[in-house]
Design goal:
Elements (H helix, E strand, L loop, with lengths): L3 E14 L7 H13 L17 E14 L3 E6 L5 H8 L7 E6 L3 E4 L12 H11 L4 H15 L14 H14 L4 E5 L7 H18 L2 E5 L3 H7 L2 E6 L2 E6 L1 H12 L5 E3 L17 E9 L5 E3 L3 E10 L3 E12 L4 E6 L3 E4 L4 E9 L6 E12 L5 E16 L12 H4 L12
Amino acid sequence: MPKVIIKIKNIKKKYRLGTIGGGTLKGDIQSWISVKLGKEDPNAMIDDTDGKKKKEFWALKGINIEISEGERVGIIGTNGAGKSTLLKLLSRVTAPTEGEIYIKGRITSMLEIGTGFHGELTGRENIYLNGSILGMKKEEIDQKIEDIIKFSECEQFIDTPVKRYSSGMYVKLAFAVAAHLNSEIMIMDEVLAVGDMAFQQKCLDKMSEVSKNEGKTILYVSHNMGTIRRLCDRCLVLEKGNIVFDGDVEKAIQRYLKIESVMKVENVIDDSMRDRVLDNDMTLRVRLIGIDLIGQDNNYIEAGDKFKFRATFKCEEDIEKVFFRCIISKLDGIAAGTAMSQAVENCKKNDVKEIVFEFDSSQIAPGQYSMKVILFKPNYNGAHEKYDAVANALAFEVIATKGQFFNYAWPSSGWGSTSYPMLRVVE
C-alpha cells in the first residue's frame, strides 16, 4: 500500500485585505509606532486612518487531505477558490494561519514563471542554484545537467543570463530543472499554459513518466480540463476555500463545471457575461440582450432533433447588416462546432429585434454544452467588425433516447464530443 507523504490537517489561511506590509515584523513595528505617535498607519488601506476598513479574507477554511506516494493529483476550481494559496502553503512560501502540514520528501515547485531563478545568472548557473537549494551535491547535478539542457530545448541560450529569456524559455528551463532534479514531490501551478503546444505535451509525458517510474507525487493546478484528464488519477475541486469534491477525475470535472455554469432555458444577458479580456475588440454597436429556447420546458434536447432558440438584440445606432456566429462548446471550453447565420438587415437605432434560429443537433454527441454568441459584420478584406460577444449565452444538454444507436455512456474524454453520422457499408 502506497505510503502517505503529504498530510494536511485543518489548514486555514487568513489574509488582511488592504494591508500593504504583508504582515512582516518591520510592518508591524511601523504600524505600532504610528499608532503610538498618533500618526497615520503606513500599512493601512488608502483613506483609512483609523483601521476600521481593514477586513479579513479566509482563502482556505479548514482543508484536510492525505496524498500518497506516486499519486498525480489535479486541483481545479474557479479563480479565487484557494488553489494557489494551497500550493504556496505546501511549498512553504507562506505559513498557514491555523492547522498543520506534514510532508515527507523534497519539493520542486513551479508556482509562477521564473520562480527561484536569478535574472543575472545564466541558465546553466540557475540549474546549479536550484539543485543546491534542493540539497543536491554538485556531482549529482553534473550527472543530470546535459539531460536538463537537452529537455529544455534552450541549448543555444544556456549560457545567457535568464533575464533575457522569453516567458516560454523560462518555463521550458524551469520545468526541465523541476522534472530532473532529485525531489519526491512536484508542484505545478498553471505554468504550462505559457509554453507551446508541443512542449506542453512533452511536459505531460515527462510528469507521467517520473510518477510511474520514479514514484514522484504530482500536484497540478490547471484550468485546462484536457491536461487534467490526461495527467491526473485523482482530482480535488475547491470552492471558496473549501474542498467540495475529492476523487475520480471525470466526476471532479463534472462537479467543477456545475459550479462554472448554470443550465437555463432562457437567459437575460448582462455585462458580466461579456468577456472583455478575450473579446476586447467589441464595439457594442449592437448588443445581445436575451436568448431563450422555444417550445422547451427545460434545457434537454433529444439527440438528432432540431430545436429553435430566440435571440433578442438591440441596435445602439443604425446598422446595415448583422450576422450571428454561434460556437457550441463542451462545458470545459472545448469547441464542438460553429453555426453561422444569414444577415439580418436594416437595423435602425434603438430597434429591439427578435430572431428565431433553428439548430440541428444530429452532429452532436449526448452531453452538456454551452453556446457563445457573437454578433458581427464581415468586411471585404476578410476581417470583421465584432459588435458583441457573449459567453455561455445559452446552455443545453443533448440526451440519447431509447432505441438510438448511442444510447449508452458516451466517453467524450476519449471519443470526442461530436457524434458523426453512421458509417455506411458499401459492399
